[in-house]
Design brief:
The complex is a heterotrimer. By secondary structure, chain A is mostly helical. Helices cover 79% and strands 0% of the residues of chain A. Chain B has helices at residues 2-31, 48-52, 56-88, 94-107, 109-120, 125-133, 146-170, 174-182, 187-198, 200-215, 219-224, 232-240, 246-274; strands at 34-35, 41-42. Classes of the chains: A mainly alpha, B mainly alpha, C alpha+beta. Chains A and B meet through helix 1, helix 3, helix 4, helix 5 and helix 6 of A and helix 1, helix 3, helix 4, helix 5 and helix 6 of B.
């Protein structure tokens, strides 16, 4: 049976990875059709020229960086507080945020923002997107930090306080260094989740803040576009590397 | 001690209120309001949005969503179990094989869906290749139907099934497998009589982790589905954008939430019974 | 292969990546015997058992069961059954579900219930047949594990340190029950243990192993009184070595008066054992020596005593 399982595993891994690998291969296709006509970097060159795509990419990077930073700070603090003593409300809310289908999160945020904007003279834009992203990234950060905290010996903080540190001081000088790899991993995770989001972002972005996923969606809907292969490959490679580093940090 | 904890929880409490609590509350309120003349909402409170959900048209949508989610979950189980078994038995390379399963999931959901569009379109790779080899003359319509949606869902959520299955299988006492063989059971029989029953917790966990997101899926059916593949997620999105019937969209959202919460609650209770 | 031996190993060897777990092991187990493999952890006894069960395949040598060669067969085709160290009861089945597991394929449906009932009676677990393993005590689980294997009527029953998971109190009681069961049922037992007291009290024959090899095979009395090597001597019980001669503590006589041929020594300490006492002494030549004496003997540290023994108790064994 072991041989059979191994053969099956190869097929399963092929199924999981082949589509993206094929995209990568065809991003180097000289022809714009799905027939291989030689090796070429022209689509990457075209990508570099596409102002709209580059602008959306920049928007995405800014949004991801800011929201990841905020989510990491807020989430780490929350995880620490939860670790000290649980809170059914916060834990419940975090769980809810993880299991709520994205479309519902998106439309409810849209409804909420529109309602608020009747009283505050604001519109949808980068700020609403960032707020939404912090919202859904929070749970991921908390999960990562909590996992790391579970292997942390509380006696270390007590030792610090015994030697004269305040509670906050102990947190800063003992706990944070211990959490450092997990914090970095959580930040990368939040970044990844933010960069890829389409559903929620498309609903709360408004007219002038187009993100990369939104641009990709529009291109994908319109039909054959080999530049999309190039963009996709770059994103996959970039995010893949980020995730690998994040996993390494988590397990160190 | 308590002050630190309160201050540390405050920011996340605020964020969760603003991005989850208040929005969901608004949706609840909207679901009992009436659609305004120019979109938006108006005061006459009504339960009409909920009664409208009983219309057979929407019943069909719910049924289709349940059916597709169930099929996708079953396929994930059938395809994921042997893979989880393989990884659990792979000794020192376990972590490597596990990462290979998780990695694609974290890259980009949107791009992974696009990859299948690239492959399955009428002008996509599969059709081009089959035509070039001469197996077919006309392109096969593989995209924009229920089948493509199920394929996309299985592709996207397989890791969600493999992980809990792996966790359960990994903890299985290897002595039990040896005992079964010792007592005369051949490998397939051992699988059926010992391994599968003992993996029940993992199977349950994986099924819930796959079924609930599949039920509420939007992007997969939007990109890979045809005009007939309208699932609950698409209905909700439609009501909030093109159709501009926010109250009805709100009611549909809450209905979906209710089903999802009920399933999760039932699953939790089942887990607790086990422990 | 003699007609009386049911299991025979011929020069069986097994190697794992870094070391030779079993080297050229040969022995033969008579039908109906209680045969033990005794040795310290890492000596290869469990690997030998697993080779007989079929969970490992030998690199060299042959294993014969009832006149046929079995070392190339998978476990489910050998007529031997194993009682695992942690019992390996199926948690999702009841006691009777566990016991009938191996029967389900073989016999007709109606015969099964009776056979299960009969074997559960033999191990005195018939009244608990609807319980699950989680609801049983350690001793009860062991009995179910025995029943599960015995119901299949194996040619040899393999037991991998079945008593080590029990509390010391329970161990002695279960030990007696096990011996009694084996006599009643008449099945051949191949028993693995690191506890020499267990092996001595239960076995008809003992094979003492060390470093993957068999050091000696014999009855309990033979391996205890006439050990073939220093290792066997020291492993089976406490040993003293005086001038290269081996002596068991109970073979030494201690008296306050000098006797013919006695050695003088100074008492360095005593250890109360309950029924007896260990008297630790230091000889004139500096060697230390422990004698086993009556518990009420009143010797004190510093006292001068005289040790003697009979030549019949001397063990002269090479280093």
């Amino acid at each position: 049976m072991k041989r059979g399982l191994a053969v099956y595993a190869v097929a399963a891994y092929a199924f999981l990875h082949a589509p993206l690998l094929i995209l990568a291969v065809f991003s180097l296709n000289a022809s714009r059709f799905t027939v291989w006509q030689g090796f070429s970097l022209r689509w990457y060159a075209a990508l570099a020229q596409d102002r709209e795509l580059i602008e959306s990419a920049l928007n995405s990077l800014i949004i991801a960086a800011v929201s990841a930073a905020l989510a990491t700070v807020i989430g780490t603090m929350a995880a620490y507080a939860l670790w000290k003593r649980g809170s059914a409300w916060i834990s419940g809310a975090l769980y809810l945020s993880l299991v709520t289908p994205e479309i519902i999160t998106g439309v409810s945020l849209l409804a909420f923002f529109q309602w608020v904007f009747r009283y505050l003279n604001l519109r949808l834009g980068m700020h609403t997107v960032i707020l939404a992203h912090v919202g859904f990234s929070l749970a991921y950060v908390v999960v990562v930090i909590l996992a790391r905290l579970r292997t942390f010996d509380p006696a270390l903080e007590e030792a610090a306080m015994d030697l004269g540190a305040t509670e906050l001081g102990a947190f800063r000088s003992v706990t944070i260094p211990y959490l450092a790899p997990a914090i970095a991993a959580a930040a990368m995770l939040a970044f990844t989740v933010s960069i890829d989001d389409y559903v929620i972002t498309s609903l709360v972005a408004g007219v002038d803040s187009q993100t990369l996923p939104m641009a990709i969606y529009a291109l994908a809907r319109r039909g054959v576009n080999p530049v999309l292969n190039a963009v996709s490959t770059m994103i996959v490679v970039g995010l893949g590397a980020l995730v690998l580093v994040s996993e390494r940090l988590r397990s160190s | 001690m308590k002050r630190v904890r309160t201050w540390f929880l405050a920011p996340s409490a605020l964020v969760l209120f603003v991005t989850l609590g208040a929005p969901l509350a608004i949706v609840c309120v909207y679901s009992v309001l009436t659609r305004g003349a120019y979109g938006g909402v108006e005061t006459p409170f009504t339960l009409e949005n909920y009664t409208r959900l009983w219309d057979p048209v929407y019943g069909l949508i719910l049924w289709r969503s349940l059916w597709i989610a169930a099929l996708a979950t079953a396929l994930c189980l059938a395809l994921g179990f042997p893979l989880a078994l393989f990884i659990a038995r792979s000794g020192s390379r376990k972590n490597l094989y596990l990462s290979l399963v998780i990695l694609p999931f974290w890259t980009s959901f949107l791009i992974r869906l696009y990859a299948w569009m690239f492959l399955l379109r009428d002008t996509g790779l599969v059709n081009t290749a089959l035509q070039a080899v001469g197996l077919i003359r006309e392109p096969l319509p593989m995209l924009y139907n229920d089948g493509a949606v199920i394929l996309g869902l299985v592709y996207g959520f397989l890791p969600f099934m493999v992980l809990p299955l792996y966790a359960t299988l990994e903890r299985l006492d290897p002595n039990l497998i040896e005992a079964a063989a010792d007592l005369g059971a051949r490998p397939l029989e051992t699988l059926w009589r010992v391994i599968l029953p003992l993996s029940a917790p993992g199977i349950r966990a994986g099924a819930i982790l796959v079924f609930v997101p599949c039920l509420g899926t939007y992007l997969t059916s939007d990109l890979l589905g045809g005009s007939k593949t309208i699932l609950i997620g698409n209905l909700v999105q439609n009501q909030f954008t093109a159709a501009r019937d926010w109250p009805f969209g709100a009611a549909a959202s809450l209905a979906l939430m209710a089903v999802a919460m009920a399933l999760l609650f039932a699953a939790r209770r089942a887990e607790e019974d086990l422990l | 292969m003699t007609s009386n031996s049911v299991l025979e190993l011929r020069r069986v060897s097994k190697r794992f990546a870094s070391h030779a777990a079993v080297s050229e092991v040969s022995f033969s187990v008579p039908r109906g015997a209680f045969f033990s493999l005794l040795g310290p952890s890492g000596c290869g006894k469990t690997t030998t058992l697993r080779l007989v069960a079929g969970f490992e395949a030998p690199d060299a040598g042959e294993i014969w069961l009832n006149g046929s060669r079995i070392d190339t067969l998978p476990p489910y085709r050998r007529n031997v059954n194993t009682v695992f160290q942690n019992y390996a009861l199926f948690p999702h089945l009841t006691v009777s579900g566990n016991v009938e597991f191996g029967l389900r394929r073989k016999s007709a449906k109606n015969g099964i219930a009776q056979r299960v009932e009969a074997v559960l009676e033999q191990v005195r677990m018939a009244d608990k047949k609807s319980r699950t393993p989680a609801q049983l005590s350690g001793g009860e689980r062991q009995r179910v594990a025995l029943a599960r294997s015995l119901v299949l009527e194996p040619d040899v029953l393999l037991l991998d340190e079945p008593l080590s998971a029990l509390d010391p109190q329970l161990r002695k009681q279960v030990r007696a029950e096990l011996k009694d069961l084996q006599r009643r049922v008449g099945v051949t037992f191949l028993f693995v243990t690191h506890d020499q007291e267990e092996a001595l009290s239960l076995s008809d024959s003992i094979a003492v192993m060390n470093g993957g090899r068999i050091q000696q095979i014999g009855t309990p009395e033979e391996v205890y009184r006439r050990p073939a090597t220093r290792f066997v001597a020291s492993f089976l019980g406490a040993m003293n070595w005086i001038d290269g001669i081996g002596l068991r503590p109970e073979a030494l006589r201690v008296s306050r008066e000098r006797e013919n041929g006695s050695h003088s020594a100074v008492v360095t300490g005593t250890t109360f054992l309950g029924p007896t006492m260990y008297l630790e002494t230091r000889l004139e030549n500096g060697e230390y020596c422990t004698a086993q004496i009556a518990a009420d003997a009143a010797f004190r540290p510093g006292e001068c005593v005289h040790l003697s023994w009979s030549a019949a108790d001397e063990l002269r064994l090479p280093e």
